[in-house]
Amino acid sequence: DSGVTQTPKHLITATGQRVTLRCSPRSGDLSVYWYQQSLDQGLQFLIQYYNGEERAKGNILERFSAQQFPDLHSELNLSSLELGDSALYFCASSALDSSPYGYTFGSGTRLTVV
Amino acid sequence: AQSVTQPDIHITVSEGASLELRCNYSYGATPYLFWYVQSPGQGLQLLLKYFSGDTLVQGIKGFEAEFKRSQSSFNLRKPSVHWSDAAEYFCAVGASNAGNMLTFGGGTRLMVKP
Lengths: 114, 114
Prior knowledge:
The complex is a heterodimer of chains A (114) and B (114). Chain A has 114 residues and is mainly beta.
């Protein structure tokens, strides 16, 4: 157990729908990062939050949004889902607002859009 | 912007044989370098990391990696591979800038022959 908790582990939904993925960071970590892992794109950084504030944005679609709550858990919202959004979505956390010590990853949420 | 290249998509080695996985990075300053391992259906686990100092770093599970600035490389090695090492390995580069995320290579899938 890495200490980073992601729910749900699996999600199957239809095109056009909206889903919410949840992440609880490791105790004491203030930064949360979201990554998308797909066969064709590899591991792509989506977005980072630090202590409730958005810090960095990567290749995140406008249909996707995220937030970090006062208790530091984070949610990634995916809307108007398309078949191509099917992927493994990882949350990672770190203590700092940067990456020098690496991240701790959760086990991911596998999203299948049908 | 930083980038990481893992030239080998697949590698097959025999159990007990030595292993070297290649990683080349591109970054303007001194990078922070990482190797992660991902077993099927699992999240990414940190194997080792390099910040500064000794260019040969030791990690978990008997792995080591060597930072070579002149070659912009950070290759992962293990003297004797075990069947349980079969997994996907990711090299990543980061920096100390606030809001700087890890950038991952495309991964190398390791298969171990009995």
